[in-house]
Amino acid sequence: MEIVSYRKYYKTRFGEMYFGKCEDVLLDYLSRPDFKPINLLFTSPPFPLNRAKRYGNMTGKDYLEWIGMLGPIFKRLLATDGSIVFELGNAWEPGVPAHSTLPIEALLELKKSGDFSLCQEFIYYNPAKLPSPIEWVNKRRIRVKDSFTRLWWLSNSPYPKANNHNVKEEYSQQMKKLIKSGKYNSGKRPSEYVIGESSFSKNNGGAIPSNVLIASNTNSKDDYLRYCKDNELEIHPARMPKEIVGFFIKFLTDENDLILDPFAGSNTTGNEAEKLKRQWMSIEASENYIKGSIGRFQSAQLL
Ligand SMILES: C[S@@+](CC[C@H](N)C(=O)[O-])C[C@H]1O[C@@H](n2cnc3c(N)ncnc32)[C@H](O)[C@@H]1O
Q1: Ligand 1 midpoint to CA 142 (Å)
Q2: Which of the residues in the chain have pLDDT under 50?
Q3: pLDDT confidence of residue 179
Q4: Where are the chain's structural domains?
Q5: Furthest-apart CA pair in the chain: how many Å?
Q6: What is the CATH number of domain 7-169+209-297?
Q7: Are strands 78-88 and 148-155 parallel, antiparallel or unpaired?
């Protein structure tokens, strides 16, 4: 029989970080008497590259099989009105200027194996992203920069807990003026749609955000980076911007709900959950990244 090992590494007021493979930790968690369903599983799994990368990414069919194995586990973990939001980076076919369809196949595999509903697709646009793949974009100039990735929102039903009031954005100057004047150019649009006064000039306390989220990781002075540099720890190369994590936590959960990141890396998810007073559980297979992630918290207790 395979010997499975993992351990809790540190805890904070709201959460716990586990060191090990998420498959092992989660199967065990499901059978624990203190099991509590997950309200939001937010994560960026290892990317489906067609070539092996530093943290042991699987390729092609193996990746799809592995994702297919995770679907039913995630399903059992999730609260009936819970959500999964996961980011999958882009991938290219090796040696040719052709986009891989593996990330899309991975989405379909996860959706099918967990029998999930696809609630919505999000784009995470990073304007500061460096040009890649270098060969096709910079050298031969036959492709343009890949500057967004997709986040997929899945759930057990098409009606998971969600409230876009919690993620309202500041109104544009134009909208602020409109609300002040109370005058809206109401009436029939070319589409035959009739727009009433009240629906558009009413102050709802902020604008409804779109599914294109813009963020970049250009801040070189945050606590995490400083801590890693001071302690000579490896900085995680694929950190999720905290604004993106925070957006989904506010949109899809309430205070004290439980948030899981099974591929936590530098634990951006746990840290945002902590700030927003949500309970969290994070899992990471690389001890180096866990050591660095401690720098995100003011009072992490080593276990
Ligand atoms: C894309 S990174 C996540 C980065 C994270 N969102 C952040 O903001 O730092 C994926 C992480 O999954 C970890 N990983 C890979 N396979 C794993 C597994 N089976 N269980 C747990 N973690 C794993 C890798 O070490 C890597 O740190």
Answers
A1: 32
A2: 54-55
A3: 78
A4: 7-169+209-297, 170-207
A5: 72
A6: 3.40.50.150
A7: antiparallel
